[in-house]
UniProtKB/TrEMBL annotation:
Parent-protein start and end of this portion: 1 to 327 of 700
Phylogenetic lineage: Eukaryota, Metazoa, Chordata, Craniata, Vertebrata
Highest taxon listed in the record's lineage: Eukaryota
Record's protein name: Carbohydrate kinase PfkB domain-containing protein
Amino acid sequence: MWRLSAIFRRCITTSSSRRYKKDSLFIIHPDVKEALAGHRPVVALESTIITHGMPYPHNLSTAKEVEEIVRAEGAIPATIGILKGRIHVGLSSDELDFLAQSKTALKVSRRDLPYVISKGLSGGTTVSGTMIAAHRAGIPVFVTGGIGGVHRDGENSLDVSADLTELGRTPIAVVSAGVKSILDIGRTLEFLETQGVCVATYGDSKSFPAFFSRQSGFTSPYHVSSPQEAADLIANTLSLGLQSGLLLAVPIPEEHATTGQQIENAIQTAVTEASSKGVRGRDVTPFILQKVSELTKGKSLQANIALIHNNAKVGSRIACALSKQKH
Ligand code: PSU
Ligand code: MN
């Protein structure tokens, strides 16, 4: 009798996640740890953009510039990535350098995490992978360039980024320049609605931005015009215990949006080439990004860098406004 009840107690107190949880899987950088403990603003940053989104050395310089912008705005940057099977929240300069030059780093979304960790591999975390780690570390604001979405022809291929389902299940605010027109923007917005994701454009436009251009032809469900208003959305998502994320879409600054039509043509060519070459699954987005940069002779890369800088500024201001609200 005693034995049985002891076993029963063990079963109800030892949930399977607790039994297998290893805190050493996460390494939180001391600066990030200190900021979180002091309830100071922290901004999470992804690393697939470093390992798969941009060529070396632009990937490294951009990653460092973005961290500097976050610091200049009064927040602490936490670039998230995987090194030898451990999830790092906040990377040192050498660690950033390693990921930027690595030829073997994997692209890590939710589904890749168990494998990469089991094998002790290294990788850049996508929006989905980064959201998971940021949430676990207690960082509600995450800045990136662009998120994944429903691919063109996605209604047939079912190529729908795990970023969208992650936004539906993890309460993190993702600050991005919207969705690239390499994707089906209309279906992406529909899917985000189904997933319960609160989508708002930041600034004075009501249009949902399309990464390289300020307009996508689609109106954003909502619109906020200050860091405070954006922080209110995040605070209320958290106080409602919604468990779903937010997408804050920041249009590319006007002065960098001029190459729109040229990039649009390059995207068309790249999407067609990806499909005729049989590029599939996780390779599609990196293939198209690289091709578009090549076709526009680096102009898309310059625009990409400019919008990430801007997102970092806006996201940091939102993180600062949110941290003031909480305390
Ligand atoms: N869009 C970009 N640059 C990027 C990505 C998307 O402009 O680097 C990366 C992000 O990490 C995003 C991922 O989470 O690609 C989406 O990949 P997929 O479409 O395979 O889900
Ligand atoms: Mn995909």
